[in-house]
Structure formats: structure tokens, C-alpha cells
Amino acid sequence: MRLAPLAILALAAALSALAAPRAAQAAPTLAFPLACEIGRTCEIQHYVDRDPGPGLLDYRCGHRVEDKHDGVDIRLLDMVAQRAGVDVLAAAPGRVIAIRDGVPDISIRAPGAPSTEGHHCGNRVAIALGDAWILDYCHLAEGSLKVRVGDTVGVGQPLAHVGLSGDTEFPHLHFSVRHANQVVDPFAPSSLEGCEAQAGSLWTPEAARQMTYKRGVVLNTGFAAALVGQGAIENRTTLPASPDAPALVAYARLIGLEQGDVIDMSILGPDGKVISKGALPPLNHDKDEFPAQLGHKRPAQGWARGVYLATLQVRRAGQVVISQRWQATL
């Protein structure tokens, strides 16, 4: 049988389509994956480690990473916020290909904490975007998952709540990106070699603006009537400052500090005069997390009524790089 010219052209086009390789899908564009606001209700703790050896290197040539860290950690300010429930959101549309639930929300530093062997990621949701792109959402709150394997999700759809499950000691989302089973840094996706101070990213413009790189952050501040432990900050159980308190303590918790940083603190009374002032020695190495406190004993005549102001500055190479003020009324 002889094919007509139009039939020959149609057949040739079909064969050509079968033989031609499928065009690669463009890299995904990622929305911010948490229902929180950087700088107010959450902060970035760690980035992807871009150093192939034992060193630490993030995409901005800093050291806000852990060794071999393969994702971005976005942390809540404390456990009170975690227990209230903060949604983890789909950063891109796709299909749920794996989940895990049932891992308890407990810090690995807690006495009697169970082993995380085999489930370091804790409770998780993995989503395939197509063309071998996969997003993983880790350390989700036990019992909070809102999706099942096979579900199709859209951008911004709630997947679960932020938790403390798996290999972690603070409430956060560990968000990782892989392509063809290789780690991709969403802040600098072109490669994992070295650092790129002005790198492009996979983030939407809105997400990128929210996640502007910071070389150190003040996470929590407050006043108390006694020195403050980490657990009290996490659970907001500090002894409150009061007119009858035996002491007045200004405290802060900072993350992402660098070797050589110097922290200055002061407390000013209602009359504007300094009642306590101090500086910590230069840090001997980078600090993932660091508490700073300054206190003063109650004077013989008692605390004057009014507003007390605390100030904190971090000096780096002689320049002030972080500055924070907070107050309390007695």
C-alpha cells in the first residue's frame, strides 16, 4: 500500500517525536515553605554545607552550616510556638511519594530521648515535582501530617506542622531539594562547589526577600528576676521581673555568631541612667547558638517604678553588626 504524502509527513513527525529525547523540565521555583515570618516568628538556622571536606561553608561564604548538612533549617523561636502549631507549606506543586509519622517530638538532648537511628529526618513528607526533582520536609510534628502518599498538592498547601521529631534539638523544618538524587542548594543551585556571594536561587522573589542572608540574629530577648536557662527560654517559663524581684536580668539568645564577635550589654533605669553594663570576651569560635545575660541586684531602696531598657550590640572587627533594644515596666 502506498501512503499519501500527508500520511507520510504525519508518520515522520510521529517517529521523530518518539526518537527525540524529552525536553528537560525547567528547575522548579520555590515558595517559602512555612507559615511564619522571618525576623518575627522564625529564623534560618542552617544552610546547605558546600564544603566537600570537614570544613563548613554556606552559599555566602560564611559558616552557618553543619558538616555535610544537606538542606535549609528554618526554626521557630521556641517550643511554645511549636506547640501552638505552625503549618509547613508545599513550596511547589507535586505528588506525595513518601511519608513518615509516629516519631515523637523530643529533643535528642532530653534525658531518656529515644534513638533516632533509621529516622534522623523524623516525621516527613517527600514530594516529587517531575523530571527527578524531589522536595523533602523533615522533623514534622507527630500526628500533624495532612497528606497521604499519592496526593497531589498545590503551592502553599499545608502539609503538616513544624515539629521536634528525629535528630534535632530545636523546633524547625529541615527542607531539602534533590535532583536526580543529588543535593541541590536552593540558594545557589548551579553547583555545590565553593560559594557564590551573589548567587541566583530557586526561590520566588517574595521568598528570597524574606530569606535575606544574615550573619547573626537575635532570636529571643526578655527580662527576668533571675538568671535564665535555655529550657526557660524555650518554654517561656522565666521568673518574671517585678518591683519586688531580688534581681533584674536582661537576657538574649543569639544564633549564627562568628569567632571574634564581642557582645556588649547594658540596662538603663527609668531615669535613663545606666545601672549595669558589661561586655563578654571575644568568642573563641563560631557559635550556632549563644545565650547572653546581664543582671543587677535589687538596690537597698528597691526598684524604682517605671520602664527599664536593655541594649545589646554585637561588634565584629570593630563594627556593630547586630543591635537590639527591649524593655520592661516595673
Task: Describe this entry's structure for a reader.
It is globular, with a radius of gyration of 25 Å. β16 and β17 form a beta hairpin. Helix content is 10%, strand content 35%. Strands 1, 2, 4, 5, 6, 7, 9 and 10 form an eight-stranded antiparallel β-sheet that branches. A four-stranded antiparallel β-sheet has the order 14-13-16-17, with no helix packed on it. The protein contains four helices and 17 strands. The protein is mainly beta. The chain folds into two domains: 169 residues, Distorted Sandwich (Glucose Permease (Domain IIA)), CATH 2.70.70.10; 113 residues, Immunoglobulin-like (Sandwich), CATH 2.60.40.10. It starts with a helix and ends with a strand.
First-residue to last-residue Cα separation = 99 Å
Give me the number of helical elements: 4
CATH homologous superfamily caption of the largest domain: Glucose Permease (Domain IIA)
| Average pLDDT for all residues | 91
* Low-pLDDT windows of residues: 1-23
| Percentage of residues in DSSP E strands | 35-45%
TL;DR of this structure?
The chain has 330 residues and is mainly beta.
Can you tag this structure with a few keywords?
single chain; 330 residues; mainly beta; Glucose Permease (Domain IIA); Immunoglobulin-like; 2 domains; globular
Give the SSE map.
Layout: H1 5-19, E1 42-46, E2 72-76, H2 79-84, E3 87-89, E4 94-100, E5 123-130, E6 133-140, E7 152-153, E8 158-161, E9 172-179, E10 182-184, H3 205-210, E11 217-224, H4 230-235, E12 247-257, E13 262-268, E14 274-279, E15 287-297, E16 307-316, E17 319-329
Antiparallel strand pairs: 1-2, 2-9, 3-8, 4-5, 4-7, 5-6, 6-9, 9-10, 11-12, 12-15, 13-14, 13-16, 16-17
